[in-house]
Amino acid sequence: MSFPITRFRRLRASDGIRGLVRENRIHSADLIYPLFATYGQGIKRPVGAMPGVYNFSIDMLLEEIKEVVELGIPAVILFGVPEIKDASGSGAYAEEGIVQQAVRAIKRSYPDLLVVTDVCLCEYTDHGHCGIIQNGRILNDPTLELLARTAVSHARAGADIVAPSDMMDGRVAAIRRSLDDSGYCHIPIMAYSAKYASAYYGPFREAAGSAPQFGDRKTYQMDPANALEAIRETALDIEEGADIVMVKPALAYMDIIRRVKDEFPYPLAAYNVSGEYSMVKAAAEKGWIDEKKIVLETLTGLKRAGADIIITYHAKDAARWLKEG
Predict the structure, then answer these.
(1) From which residue to which does the signal peptide run (predicted)?
(2) Which parts of the chain sit beneath pLDDT 50?
(3) Which residues line the annotated binding site for 5-aminolevulinate?
(4) pLDDT of res. 217
(5) Residue 279 forms part of a structural domain
(6) Which CATH number covers residue 217?
(7) pTM, 2 dp
(8) What residues are labeled active site?
(9) Binding region
């Protein structure tokens, strides 16, 4: 039907009507908040490129998590910032590694909070890559054993979900097999299935101290020009045992989020990454944008694209704004 029978403005006439017919809504329950744990006591070290984001010692991490829980955010994802790095990233799978200690502390104090752990080696290797290196090459298959050991150590510490982010071929199968063999068949895997070799990760590398010391990650992370490859990667992760799949980054990859969601009837996470966060923060500090409106619009866009779960550094602010209405 056409005008004047059809008048779209009838359903835009007031806040109440707009809310009644709204197709997508953001809830605090959709959000996962990333946190960086480090050794020491009383440490709350700001990340220069990410205003409002810190490296926390475990005692300070628990204070931060108290606020997360009060805001109704159901989950955090943990990244480790170790004191010592080596060629094999042994801190990633050490029983007293920083993430393992942080998980145990969180679950003691907040047993109902979901703790997701990032499973990767890059924060722990002295070369900054996500795998074992030999003659300047990142080796795929030898890396799988270390990733699987890391995932099992996280599960043993009490992690609720493990999230491999390395993009090595076959890592979901290796992790699933090791978890099952170790008695953790109940632990879900949230796979970074379509993770691109993106320029949007820059601020994270400051936060986690994980910049590669040579080369880049283009031999294992995906080419930003590719979309069909994301479908193939996601299909493989599901075949290997992924329970939740992820697209990372989010803002420039909403088309990928939509395509993955249309293709696979699986829970889908979108990672609203550090560069996306930092751009908003920088523009807001300049007074060029309304931070609250931009953040909520972005998160709504990710939901509209098909994300069921959103990992975002904006989680606390967004939850607070949503509470305020």
Answers:
(1) none
(2) none
(3) 205, 217, 274, 313
(4) 81
(5) yes
(6) 3.20.20.70
(7) 0.95
(8) 195, 248
(9) 120, 122, 130, 205, 217, 233, 274, 313
